[in-house]
Specification:
The complex is a heterodimer of chains A (129) and B (295).
Chain A: H1 17-30, H2 43-50, H3 54-66, E1 70-73, E2 77-80, H4 87-107, H5 112-124
Chain B: E1 8-17, E2 20-30, E3 35-39, H1 46-54, E4 61-66, E5 69-70, H2 76-79, E6 82-85, H3 97-105, H4 113-122, H5 136-148, E7 154-158, H6 166-180, E8 186-191, H7 194-200, E9 203-208, E10 211-217, H8 218-224, E11 226-231, E12 245-251, E13 254-259, H9 264-274, E14 277-282, H10 285-294
Parallel strand pairs in B: 3-8, 3-9, 6-7, 7-8
Antiparallel strand pairs in B: 1-2, 1-4, 4-5, 9-10, 11-13, 11-14, 12-13
Classes of the chains: A mainly alpha (129), B alpha/beta (295).
């Protein structure tokens, strides 16, 4: 696979493989590792590299297209869209994790201020990349 | 195009052996171009299902069809479109590998010599060895080469990876993916090893006691079957119920519920009705398989 793109899947995880692909590619687009205008590796390439069913990869790609992250360029493949790297997409990418944090915080009866107070130093710590 | 015809279809198929019921009424079809994993415990009826689908066994009731025609009365032209690797492989032990490949090739006008040679080489099948001297794993690989050489549109494999060591199994799965990559072939393989299936299959059918208890996309299955951890501030009532639950365990304020069809609404309803927190846990295929067998 081309440098820059790195995908790892755990086939026997409870998260379907297509969603693992979507999550990782979205994160890499949002984080700028896959900049606008870049092409995703071909379905065949990803399927062979990761040893997963190609239908699973094309499913992930078409959902990324539907979500406006990439666009299909005839004869060339899937290209990362300009708008995909904007702030809204980046904020959306982190939302599922934040929801988990919120749910756990409620279970532990932590106050919002307490959670934010704990999160802030983590965000500012250069070791947490 | 032939793709429009369902490669394999069973309608109300029952199969009895004396007083034993192997298939208890199977309505099932395999869509063209899919890679389907047929999952079931030992003695669930997997082999009977495959043999009935192929017309090697006659259904006691109902009908099995291949490419639209009855399996029991399959014309030679249809047989040429099918590849099959049985669970128990019996090949001519006195032939050399090379001879057996040539012999098999002679039955098929569409035999792809290059493909058969490539596979035999990749899998290090010794061409000059007598078939009778091959190890179980190598014999299985040879059987797969023989089943693939004529480039069948429909490939049926009964527990193909069972006697392969982990390395050969990976190699075999890679081959399945290579064959599947163009989407022109339909592949059905039975297994009780869920991790094999999770990599290569796009659909899964779960056979339990002679019935198909789930049939659909693997992704959909993983997206819909979830385990809910319910924690309520007060003890949960004895009649605590969740729609679509396949397993439910209540202990004081907590409950573990496995549901067939999770939805935000379902989770919200539980939260609201019991003032509970609900954690949603993803399950892998093995977990799901076990959960569905509890029901």
């Amino acid at each position: 696979m081309r440098p820059g793109v790195s995908i790892h899947v755990l086939p026997n995880s409870g998260v379907p493989i297509y969603r693992q692909l979507i999550d990782q590619l979205k994160a890499q687009v949002a984080g700028g590792r896959l900049p606008a205008g870049e092409f995703l590796p071909s379905v065949r390439q990803v399927a062979e590299e990761l040893q997963v069913n190609p239908m699973t990869v094309s499913k992930a790609y078409s959902l990324l297209e539907r979500d406006g992250v990439v666009e299909l360029v005839r004869g060339q493949g899937m290209r990362v869209k300009e708008a995909a790297t904007n702030g809204k997409v980046r904020r959306e990418a982190i939302l599922p994790l934040l929801k988990q944090v919120a749910a756990t915080a409620k279970q532990l009866a932590l106050k919002p201020e307490q959670v934010v107070a704990q999160l802030k130093p983590l965000l500012e710590d250069p070791r947490h990349e | 195009m032939s793709d429009a015809i369902t490669p394999l279809q069973l309608q109300g198929v029952k199969k009895h052996f004396g007083v034993t019921t192997a298939l208890a009424g199977v309505d099932w079809s395999v869509p063209a171009g899919s890679v389907v994993g047929l999952l079931g415990q030992n003695a669930a009826g997997k082999t009977t299902l495959i043999k009935t689908a192929l017309g090697l066994l006659r259904p006691s009731r109902g009908e099995a069809k291949i490419f639209g025609g009855p399996s029991w009365d399959m014309p030679a032209a249809t047989k040429a479109r099918i590849g099959y690797v049985p669970q128990v492989i019996t090949l001519y032990p006195w032939m050399r590998v090379r001879q057996l490949i040539n012999y098999t090739a002679s039955f098929y006008p569409t035999w792809n010599d290059a493909l058969a040679s490539k596979l035999a080489m990749n899998w290090a099948i010794p061409r000059e060895d007598k078939v009778g001297n091959l190890s179980v794993g190598t014999l299985q690989k040879l059987a797969i080469v023989l089943a693939l050489g004529h480039e069948p549109e429909l490939l049926l494999l009964d527990e193909p990876a069972a006697s392969l060591d982990p390395g050969a199994r990976r190699e075999f799965l890679r081959t399945i993916l290579e064959i599947a990559v163009d989407g022109r072939r339909t592949i059905l393989f039975s297994t009780h090893i869920t991790s094999d299936l999770e990599r290569v299959a796009d659909r899964v059918a779960i056979l339990r006691e002679g019935r198909i208890v789930y049939d659909g996309e693997l992704d959909t299955l993983k997206d819909s079957v979830k385990r809910l951890h319910v924690t309520s501030p007060t003890p949960l009532p004895a009649n605590f119920q969740v729609p679509g639950a396949v397993r439910l365990k209540i202990e004081g304020n907590e409950a573990l519920v496995s549901v067939r069809d999770v939805s935000e609404r379902l989770v919200d309803d539980i939260r609201r009705n019991y003032a509970a927190t609900v954690g949603v846990q993803d399950l892998n295929l093995e977990d799901i398989f076990l959960e569905l067998h509890h029901a």
